[in-house]
């Protein structure tokens, strides 16, 4: 990296302060109360006239106003709670509507508050709880005040696409048409997205052609970008390039998001020539300039492939173009330097972030903890882990995996036990990958009894072993000279694969 590769600070605070100082209590400005009047006070009405009032009258008016506001708030809360309870009851009894009609009356479920039903629907859509969202939507359609609205259907179709439910999305699309809602390019794009997200590209292309043949529903850059991204995710690079050419034919200009999608996909696939070609094409378009996401995708591509010098040159070029980094940029630099074992440059980036108060995220901590752990620098790794917890950033499964791997390589069995104690006293969600790291660590240290106990831990947590779990155990037994145990594990794997049993989950 050059002598001063990092950009000038952006919105930095006092550089004399340190990032990881103890959290200070926030200070608030003090407001001085006006001096009380001895006899009377005045206020101004909306028409600008000055009206004299006595202090006693003023206090009475304020008290009445506060009481009125409190009563209104309480009434609103009670109404909302009542409607929420009604929604909950109706949803629980959705399968037996006859019971609802008999016990709650035939019309009560059709008189819920509009705001409450819409909020309930919005919350479920946001949380991608598609089954519950569809039930609330059915409830919404039963309301006396309901009017068909295409925007609501589009939101639901987009949600179903994200949840990989394209057939249900298509059913909603048909219901939208039957209810008389106008079909637009937004609704077509939502349906196309639902199919493309599920990998049903033929169906998505069919919808695209249908849009192109409809004068009022022509595809736009957003439509093409969605389909291009889906093609690239399944490595259908030729189809993606065809779509890009089709855009030009249709007179639709690609935007920054379109180009960034190509750059990111080509970079991850290590297709550097194609990535650079797209970047050159992007730079030649006066109306489409690179942004920080362009920079991050490019840096990630070269950095993760070990081309550190090229990454640094690209960083300088983007900096000269006026593109400022964000926290993701620094995370990419840290990760690339860590994997390349360039710890001096990694430390320089950390110092820069600290100096100019870039707040570290869970990703930042995971990167540096893993890097120092792989380097065997347990002291620095543990120091960073303590800093992470002092910043009240909750460790993730990735964090714990890095700790376990490092302790396993160093032969620190007692340290691994401390990690397990931390897990027992927390609600951190663990997965099979973590337990596989645990199996590998115990196996490296030839702690075979502890390694075997991991299977019991997994069962208690409802986590199934996979191929890696058993193969790691077999390798550990074999390396430890326990050939019989290794053979038993290997036979278990072979038998399970032959019979395609679900346990163990292979």
From TrEMBL:
Gene3D superfamilies assigned: Tetratricopeptide repeat domain
Keywords annotated in UniProt: Coiled coil, Repeat
Ranges for the PPR repeats: 149-183, 184-214, 220-254, 255-290, 291-325, 361-395, 431-465
Gene Ontology MF terms in the entry: mRNA binding
Extent of Low complexity compositional bias: 37-46
InterPro entries in alphabetical order: PPR5-like (IPR044179), PPR_rpt (IPR002885), TPR-like_helical_dom_sf (IPR011990)
Entry coiled-coil feature ranges: 60-87
Region described as Disordered: 1-55
Compositionally biased region (Pro residues): 1-10
PANTHER family for this protein: EXPRESSED PROTEIN, PENTATRICOPEPTIDE REPEAT-CONTAINING PROTEIN
Family designation: Belongs to the PPR family. P subfamily.
NCBIfam families in the cross-refs: PPR (TIGR00756)
Protein name: Pentatricopeptide repeat-containing protein At5g48730, chloroplastic
Species annotation: Cucumis melo (Muskmelon)
Primary gene name: LOC103497549
């Amino acid at each position: 990296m050059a002598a001063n590769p990092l950009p000038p600070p952006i919105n930095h605070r006092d550089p004399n302060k340190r990032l990881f100082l103890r959290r200070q209590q926030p200070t608030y400005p003090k407001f001085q109360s006006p001096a009380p009047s001895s006899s009377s006070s005045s206020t101004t009405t909306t028409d600008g006239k000055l009206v004299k009032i006595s202090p006693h009258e003023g206090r009475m008016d304020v008290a009445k106003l506060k009481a009125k506001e409190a009563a209104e708030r309480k009434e609103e809360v009670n109404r909302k709670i009542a409607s929420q309870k009604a929604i909950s009851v109706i949803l629980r009894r959705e399968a037996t509507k006859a019971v609802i009609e008999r016990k709650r009356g035939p019309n009560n479920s059709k008189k819920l508050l509009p705001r409450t039903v819409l909020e309930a629907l919005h919350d479920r859509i946001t949380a991608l709880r598609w089954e519950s969202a569809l039930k609330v939507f059915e409830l919404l359609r039963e309301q006396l005040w309901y009017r068909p609205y295409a925007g609501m259907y589009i939101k639901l179709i987009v949600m179903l696409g994200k949840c990989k439910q394209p057939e249900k999305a298509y059913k909603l699309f048909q219901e939208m048409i039957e209810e008389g809602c106008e079909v637009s390019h937004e609704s077509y794009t939502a349906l196309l997205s639902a199919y493309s997200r599920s990998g049903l590209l033929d169906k998505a292309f069919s919808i695209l052609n249908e849009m192109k043949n409809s004068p009022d529903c022509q595809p736009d850059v957003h439509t093409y970008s969605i389909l291009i991204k889906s093609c690239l995710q399944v490595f259908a690079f030729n189809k993606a390039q065809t779509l890009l050419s089709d855009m030009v034919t249709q007179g639709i200009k690609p935007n920054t998001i379109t180009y960034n999608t190509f750059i990111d996909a080509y970079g991850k696939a290590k297709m550097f020539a194609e990535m650079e070609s797209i970047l050159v094409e992007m730079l030649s378009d006066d109306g489409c300039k690179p942004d920080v996401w362009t920079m991050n995708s490019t840096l990630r591509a070269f950095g993760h492939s070990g081309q550190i010098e090229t990454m640094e040159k690209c960083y300088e070029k983007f900096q000269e173009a006026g593109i400022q980094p964000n926290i993701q940029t620094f995370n990419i630099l840290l990760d690339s330097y860590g994997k390349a074992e360039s710890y001096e440059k990694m430390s320089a980036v950390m110092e820069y972030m600290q100096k100019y108060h870039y707040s570290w995220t869970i990703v930042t901590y995971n990167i540096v903890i893993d890097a120092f752990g792989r380097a065997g620098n347990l002291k620095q790794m543990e120091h960073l882990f303590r800093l992470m917890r002092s910043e009240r950033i909750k460790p993730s499964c990735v964090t714990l995996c890095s700790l376990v791997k490092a302790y396993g390589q160093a032969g620190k069995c007692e340290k691994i036990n401390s990690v397990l104690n931390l897990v027992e006293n927390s609600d951190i969600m663990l997965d099979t990958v973590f337990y596989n790291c645990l199996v590998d660590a115990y196996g490296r240290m030839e702690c075979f009894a502890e390694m075997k106990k991991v299977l019991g831990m997994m069962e208690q947590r409802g986590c199934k072993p996979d191929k890696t779990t058993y193969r790691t155990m077999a390798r550990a037994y074999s390396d430890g000279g326990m050939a019989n145990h290794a053979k038993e594990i290997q036979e278990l794997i072979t038998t399970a694969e032959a019979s395609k049993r679900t346990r163990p989950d292979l």
